Amino acid sequence: MKGAKITAVGSYVPQRRLTNADLEQMVDTNDEWIVQRTGIRERRISREDEYTSDLCAAAVRDLMNRYGKSVQDVDMILVATSTPDMPFPSVAAIVQNRLGIPQTAGVLDLSAACAGFVYGLHMAHALIASGMHHKVLVIGADTLSKITDYTDRSTCILFGDGAGAVLVESGEQDNFRGFNLGSDGSGGHHVYLSGLADQVNGVQLTATGKLVQNGREVFKWAVRTVPQGVQQVLAKAEASLAEVDWFIPHSANLRMIEPICERLDYPFGQALYSLEEFGNTSAASIPLALDLGIRQGKVHSGQQVLLYGFGAGLTHAGLLVRLSLDPQTGEPAPL
Ligand code: COA
After folding, report:
1. Does the reported pTM lie above 0.70?
2. What is the CB neighbour count within 10 angstroms for residue 47?
3. Residue 246 pairs with which residues in a beta bridge?
4. Distance CA 81, CA 334 (A)
5. pLDDT band, very low/low/confident/very high, at 19 (cuts 50, 70, 90)
6. Is the confidence at residue 82, as pLDDT, over 90?
7. Are 169 and 215 contained in the same domain?
8. Which residue has the CA at smallest separation from atom 42 of ligand 1?
9. Residue 114 is among the residues annotated as catalytic for this protein
10. Which helix (H) or strand (E) holds 44?
11. Is the peptide bond before 102 cis (omega within 30 degrees of 0)?
């Protein structure tokens, strides 16, 4: 079995900011309610002509500039997203062409909602461990603003756009220490974007063309599921929580991260999140939080991070990984 390591990270968010004050002008809400109930202060919103593939390409360019990496020998591109530019071609195929990655690379979009980035890392690890692939780009990216109902105050305050990318390369040592994946399809109707079918689990869906969510149900499920999942990751890695330098759960809501840390008895100060400045960016939220940690000088190569994604499906995925980032040779593009 071959080893795998994360060697480089990059990210990108659109320029336009949507603040809580802006939302006060759009729906019946206020900054105090949003901050108290979610911890979110602003989000980034893509231009009308800016799509998930654009965000992905920019995040990979940031990674290449900072770590002096070439993507000419990438042999697989995995893009986790719920908001592809279109059902097909895949975002991964568009990114291959946009970045001039050789046509010998496999390209695949992955649908696991807010757990998608960690699912992508899990797949990259398996492809490398099997010896079938050597250099995999894993990108988590979403443009949720395009499927957000800006007349629904219970959802429009949450979501934003962004992208994060990592390079997973083969190596002598395996730095992917343990994982846990899971799903509960019976909760599929708690958060959805309707498509060809108008029902799931026998439940009639609202076909608005926008994201619909029962926030309470998702909240309760995640706060129950994630701590158990983290314990599974640690058991598989034969590691303890004390070895986890940084815990990076999906940035859905700060009021979910607090009880999750409490249930785990993990110091809240060692949890990283991207929601204060970017909101819930779905598949992008975990790599954005990781990269914010790197940019702020908190996260260093050699440290162990425990990532845990959860969301529509319902799906969840966790991973304990030791970072082995190559030295940075360039400056990150400003976020
Ligand atoms: N501003 C002001 N009031 C609001 C509001 C807003 N933006 N949104 C909802 N409210 C009101 C509701 O109408 C309700 O009023 P009522 O008591 O008069 O009926 C009250 O606030 C409480 O609503 P509720 O939905 O119970 O709030 P909550 O504390 O559960 O917070 C969420 C709502 C959506 C922030 C929260 O449930 C959440 O974050 N859930 C998880 C979402 C998630 O993880 N999604 C993952 C998908 S990846």
Report:
1. yes
2. 13
3. 305
4. 23
5. very high
6. yes
7. no
8. 215
9. yes
10. strand 42-45
11. no
What is the extent of the structural domain holding 71? 3-176
76 and 187 belong to one structural domain: no
Rounded Cα distance between 159 and 250, Å, is 13
pLDDT of 241-261, one tens digit each?
Answer: 999 999 999 999 999 999 999
Q: Which residue among 23, 213, 219, 315 has the greatest number of ligand 1 atoms within 8 angstroms of its CB, and so is best to mutate?
A: 219
SS3 state of residue 108: strand
In total, how many domains does the chain have?
A: 2
pLDDT of residue 302: 97
Distance 214 CA to ligand 1 centre (A): 9
Residue 252 CB–ligand 1 contact under 6 Å: yes
Residue partners of 125: CB distance under 8 A and separation at least 6:
4, 168, 176, 179
Residues 165 and 259 in one domain: no
**90 exposure class (CB count in 10 Å sphere: 0-12, 13-18, 19+):** buried
Of the listed 122, 250, 253, 261, which one is catalytic? 250
289: CATH? 3.40.47.10
> Of residues 56, 114, 156, 261, which has the active-site annotation?
114
Q: Is the distance from CB of 129 to CB of 108 less than 8 angstroms?
A: no
Rounded distance from Cα 215 to ligand 1 centre (Å): 6
Co-location of 207 and 160 in the same domain: no
Tokens of 42: 């602003």
Considering the domain architecture, whether residues 206 and 310 belong to the same structural domain is answered as yes
